[in-house]
User: Fold this.
Amino acid sequence: MQQLNVVWLRNDLRSFDNAVLSSATEDAARTGAAVLALYIATPDTWQLHDMAAIKQDLLRRRVKQLQQELATLNIPLLAIEGSSYQQIPVVFTRLGQHFLLKVFVQSEYELREQQRDNLVEHAVQVSNGQFIRFDTQCIMPPGSVRTQQGDIYKVFTPFKRSWLVQLKQQGISCYARPKALAQEKLQLPDFPALKPGDNSSAAWPVAEQEVLQLMRAFCREKVHDYQNSRDFPAIEGTSKLSAYLAIGVVSAAQCIARLQLEAADSWQQDKSGAEVWLSELIWREFYKHILLAYPDLIKHQPFQAETAAIRWSNNPSLFKAWCEGMTGYPIVDAAMRQLNKTGWMHNRLRMIAASFLVKDLHIDWRWGERYFMSKLIDGDFAANNGGWQWAASTGTDAAPYFRIFNPVSQSEKFDPKGDFIRFYVPELSKLQGKAIHWPHGVGTASGYPAPVVDHAEARKHTLALFAEVKKTA
Ligand SMILES: Cc1cc2nc3c(=O)[nH]c(=O)nc-3n(C[C@H](O)[C@H](O)[C@H](O)COP(=O)(O)OP(=O)(O)OC[C@H]3O[C@@H](n4cnc5c(N)ncnc54)[C@H](O)[C@@H]3O)c2cc1C
Assistant:
């Protein structure tokens, strides 16, 4: 039976710096195996995970594009339309009837993904094949950054310090794009072909080279001022790479390798733009490490157990106003309308909108976590859960519960001229000066809702809610 090295792609949809693809092709060069890339869409499971339609479309467009890119390496990409994770082992069983399988995958850390991989591993082994995992989603594999006592870090700053020591020791290296293979056309069993998406992500390019160019341009032109510009949503001061990092069109290692090249003098300099951006990439890893170490997080449990007892009000009409960007707080409404319209939200706004939901409207952070997931093009379980638990003061190394964002002063500070608000809240487009941040009683904001809550009162109630559970902790 012919050996088939299957590169089962999931959130590593790239041909450069892809450990799985490189290892499968190198192995094939030694063993004479054929190489097949594989992608299986699972819309039923995506729905179960609240995956945004725009992210689903980005995945579909990217897979189609990758099919062409891998064709230039003479590697076929079999893109299958499946339904749920439960069906996947059957795909491998069928392939295993024709080939001796060696399956190469990048490990994933969420619960259903781990269960899926265990089932597929079993199916592959039953057909006498091998299932080989690569821990390459992070630069430092989860579990590999530990305190001197061997514990997992629960606080970001010492985690980052230790992470950087490891980086200096091992350096950054990226896998080269594999060389084109000389292999015959494979005879494969029939599977339903991947369906096209709804094109809702059309504004986001999907060609690998184009995405790499965006990353390089950011490192060359913008990262030097990142520490100053990153908090202002009216400025394009951040990389906007999150959607690509989430599905692996670009890797964190590629970002850091380029950063070291473009900002050789400053990336190790405290609080330089390059160093601050590097910190954000380390936050991404921190949340993945935490997720694997504390699997209760995957079940949506708060990291700080006592906060599970908080008596949220969960008022459905306030939740609706927040989702629709109709709270009467301009910066929150602009943020939510950006999310609803574009599938992306600026980080400063994610913090403001999340804090507002939890600490002004007293709605369970899990409602917001779920809503974000259902809209974000960059939806990533670890980062989203980490961000929500940070804002809600329920997470590890979270904002202290008594630090409650004032949405009006946040607005004055981070959208000082009101340009961002004017863009997304047309009802306020004629307002000038401070009125843009608090338009109530001005008379020129027709159609804009009155504030749904009083911030000062809401703040007091939040402090009381937390005091109640902290007292009993
Ligand atoms: C409530 C809330 C929910 C969030 N949900 C997600 C999510 O689902 N997916 C997601 O990728 N990010 C999430 N973030 C983190 C952050 O807001 C986005 O990564 C960032 O806004 C993406 O924009 P960018 O690519 O321009 O980031 P840049 O500022 O250019 O940062 C570079 C990269 O670092 C990573 N990163 C940056 N900030 C964080 C962070 N705080 N935590 C983890 N990784 C980070 C991202 O991969 C990002 O692309 C969330 C933050 C909050 C507060």
